[in-house]
Amino acid sequence: MTVQGATAHHAVPERNWGPVLHKVFVYTCLVVGTVVIMIPFFWMITTSLKKSGTEFTFPIEWLPNPPRWKNYVDGWTVLPFNRWALNSVRISALAIAGSVISSAIVGFGFGRIRFPGRDALFMLVLATMMLPFPSVIVPLFLLFKRIGWIDTILPLTVPTFFGANAFFIFLLRQFFRTLPLDLDDAARVDGCNTFHVFLRICLPLIRPALGIIFVFSFMHNWNDFLGPLIFLSHTTKYTLALGLRYFQSQYRVEWALMMAVSLIILTPNIVLFFLAQKYYIQGIVVSGVKG
Amino acid sequence: MATSIRILNGTVRGKLYWRRTLEGYLFISPWIIGFAVFTAGALLGSFGISLTEWSIIGDRYWVGAGNYVKLVQDQFFWKSLQVTFLYLLNVPMNLVLGLLLALLLNQKILGLGVFRTVFFLPSVTAGVAVSLLWLWIFNPRFGVINVLLAKIGIQGPMWLGSETWAMPALIIMSVWGVGGSMLIYLAALQGIPTALYEAATIDGASHLRKFLYITIPMISPVLLLNLIIGVIGSFQVFTQAFIMTRGGPNYATLFYVLYLYQHAFQWYNMGYASALAWILFIVILVCTFLILKMSRDWVYYED
Predict the structure, then answer these.
(1) Where do you find CATH 1.10.3720.10 in chain B?
(2) Hey, are the CB atoms on A284 and B184 less than 8 Å from each other?
(3) Largest Cα span, chain A
(4) Rounded-to-integer distance, Cα A195 and Cα B15, Å
(5) In Å, how far is A75's CA from the nearest CA of chain B?
(6) Homologous superfamily, domain B69-295
(7) Tens digits of per-residue pLDDT, A64-112?
(8) Residue A162: its chain B contacts at CB < 8 A?
(9) Complex ipTM over 0.90
(10) Do residue A115 and residue B25 have CB atoms under 8 angstroms apart?
């Protein structure tokens, strides 16, 4: 107390400019950082509003006048993007469902039931987080080819129902462990079996964590490229990511249209981020600090 | 009486034990199946295939360690390893920049939420769309970077068209996504008890000393986490290379996974690609192990 009082007393009379300069420095850095981070987004938007061909004229039109909103329609309809969007939605929805369901069940098993071998198996879960997906693409491709799954959505969705993402299992296990153990016992006394404890008691309590799985899983599947590239070959089966690549191969210099379509495809990411910002941030924080 | 109760108790416990065990394995069974098929099975399968020469349409020949011998003599294998290791430079850059941003934001400032959102925004975008965006940004004549550089009288490089500048370009692109690690640091910084700083202030510690002896040790577990995430992610770069450079110019961005993909799905050398896949697996395993081992010297755990 006395020490604090003494320093405060000391600071008042001689008008200390240090904190002010510090503030100026901090805000300058933050504003410069913001500008640098936003330039790519700005560039994407202005390009998407240019008349075809004017991407390659000087002086650069920073604010296209008039803005060509029609690019969004033109770019989207010149190739079957509607169909590809439908494919993407279907795959993402199933993969999200699979991730949420399987990681909740498995996470509960690891987090709230004590059984022999559990901890060793959980170490294995953690170890698989290090396993690079590219190192198993060849056998997976051959397996799916043999059972006739190539060019279907099955290779991209079925594994998610079997806890394919170890990180999600880890995350939910952490959440299940934070619930008090008395909860289960009380429910059991009332006649609940383990599955009821899981479904009726514990699951509702970790709903925010399920939200985290939802957004992370959406992000991953909506933007995934390598998986669809390997497992889908016919253009009618393409996802948006593959469709966009196809667009690039067909209209290599149509940057205005390409940026317009790219922006449409990124919109769900950005909208979801703003709607579910707390889930994103919480998910990252939990994985970082509790991990 | 006493003994019979004990026996009864014992059997009830025994029953409960077996029930728990059964239920536990039932709950984790989806993962066990998935692990057996898609992870362990796939890895073993990959190893088996790597001992053969197999071009999907034709026959399979047993070649033993032949693919691995070929690999050692394959200059493109070494090139792709070199390229991937060079790209690892993005990891320390992201570590330092992410920490600096987090330190800036970990203060009483106006608009904290806005800044945090802005810095994190690039991290929610990914994939082909972002690769196309950066391909356009790096356009040597009409891309925004060189246009802005020209305004201040600098003639920008060819970026992705230049053997020297293609890799720095891809690293710049990765640094744009620094917000993810920033967020992890920020959470860690906010978890440091203020009492530590207060005590240090009383002892007359300077800002630098406080940073070096309180902040760094307290966030070291998170530094380690960001380091491992960064390294594992860097080994798996594919989309950028595939969309933006196709490995060029002159193999300057022949990332390991791109090379693996080419062998597997463009030239259908399933055996050779599997050998590449196993080497990738081992390299990541060894790197992670080394990082974890060395981390004992600099990571501080409270308990």
Answers:
(1) 69-295
(2) yes
(3) 82
(4) 18
(5) 14
(6) MetI-like (1.10.3720.10)
(7) 888 889 999 999 999 999 999 999 999 999 999 999 999 999 999 999 8
(8) 30-31, 33-34, 37-38
(9) no
(10) yes
